[in-house]
Amino acid sequence: MLAPKINHNSWLREMDHPAINLPRWQQQVDLISDLYQSKNTLIIQSNGKDAQIICSQKIPNSSLTTGAMLQREGLIDAICDSVSYGLTPLDTVKIGGSFTDFRKLLVLKLNWPDGRLFGCLVICDPASDCMTATSAAVCDSIKALLQGELKQMYLMGQLQRLSVQDEFTCMLNPYGFNLMAPRQLSLSRRFGSHAGLIVLEDQPSPQLHQKYTESQRTRIIARIISDSMREADISARLQSDQFIILAFVDNESNLDSLIARLRKQVHKEAPEINLVVGKSFFTPDTQLSLIPMQQEAIADLERNRDSRKKGLGSRL
Predict the structure, then answer these.
(1) What gap in Å lies between CA 21 and CA 26, rounded to an integer?
(2) Mean per-residue pLDDT for 63-76?
(3) Integer Cα distance of 55 and 304 in angstroms
(4) Would you put residue 170 in left (φ > 0), alpha (ψ -120 to 50) or beta?
(5) Tens-place pLDDT, residues 238-261
(6) 57, 38 Cβ separation under 8 angstroms
(7) Residue range 137-184, pLDDT digits in tens
(8) Beta strand pairing status for 117-124 and 88-90?
(9) Residue 17 burial by CB count (10 A; 0-12/13-18/19+): exposed, middle or buried?
(10) Can you give the pLDDT at residue 201?
(11) In whole angstroms, how far apart are CA 98 and each of 38, 72, 76, 164?
(12) Given a cut of 50, is residue 271 above it in pLDDT?
């Protein structure tokens, strides 16, 4: 489980993100409406097959109001097909849908910082004498302002991810695990869920030829762990070759089954990797916090590691 990314498919009006100032977006819509003497001005967000009006000019009895949902229609498809980054005139006959009542549209494409389409600014029936180079320059400035807030939102999300994420494996780091795991564990206890901690460590055998480098081995283990987890489970990289999983299970045998599946998958993909595993299991009424349970799992791992070393020593 990773720190949340910005979801491009979530509606901006429902995010309530500190980087986005929707009253300021509305001010820009009102400014452009006055500048172009338009019948309506909209900021529209595209989201799959649907679209939503983020801001609109306040016009009585209009169906194109703030918060209204639109079918994707021809407008968004036309924006996607357009290669222009400036104001683009569109034929309302070809666009159709909710825009058939207008004679002319001027559209300005808006993008997320990663280049994906966010939506567009739409000026409906602008006055011909208001379509000047100065007006277009104002629109470009407003576009920079809006996309600047989207970029700030994106960067804040990236910063949050980096502060809790191991950059090498994209799993949680120890700080992220200690931040998120107690919250998830507390929530699970309210619903009567059992939980277990698994600590895994790569212990390469000096007698075997190592097909993979240490970094490759680490990535293989991290990927297998991530692929094996359910959404509620949490996993992290504790050290260079040590990983931890907080898994929610019905009973202790389920925890053993998870360990067996992990071992089987690792052996299938990279037989040379030898996992040493420690575990701890606790019921919903266990009063211990996460830290002593983690210490118990690590102590179990160390016992298993020592037993394995003794076993290898006796064979030599």
Answers:
(1) 9
(2) 85
(3) 61
(4) left
(5) 988 899 999 998 889 999 999 999
(6) yes
(7) 999 999 999 999 999 998 888 887 778 988 889 899 999 999 889 888
(8) unpaired
(9) middle
(10) 94
(11) 16, 10, 12, 44
(12) yes
* Average pLDDT rounded to a whole number, residues 59-77: 85
133: which 2 tokens? 């180079």
Phi/psi of residue 127, nearest 5 degrees: -70, 135
Cα–Cα distance, 76 to 99 (Å, whole number)? 12
Q: Tell me, letter by letter, the H, E, C secondary structure of the chain.
A: CCCCCCCCCCCHHHCCCCCCCHHHHHHHHHHHHHHHCCCEEEEEEEECCEEEEEEECCCCCCCCCCCCEEECHHHHHHHHHCCCCCCEEECHHHHCHHHCCCCCEEEEEEECCCCCEEEEEEEECCCHHHCCHHHHHHHHHHHHHHHHHHHHHHHHHHHHHHHHECCCCCCECHHHHHHHHHHHHHHHHHCCCEEEEEEEEECCCCCCCCCCCHHHHHHHHHHHHHHHCCCCCEEEEEECCEEEEEEEECCHHHHHHHHHHHHHHHHHHCCCCCEEEEEEEECCCCCCCHHHHHHHHHHHHHHHHHHHHHHHHHHC
Least Cα distance to 198 among 274, 276, 303, 265 occurs for: 276
Residue type, 282: F
Q: Return the structure tokens found at 67.
A: 């918060």
Residues making up the chain, counted from first to last: 316
User: For residues 205 and 16, what is the distance between their CA atoms, to the nearest angstrom?
Assistant: 52
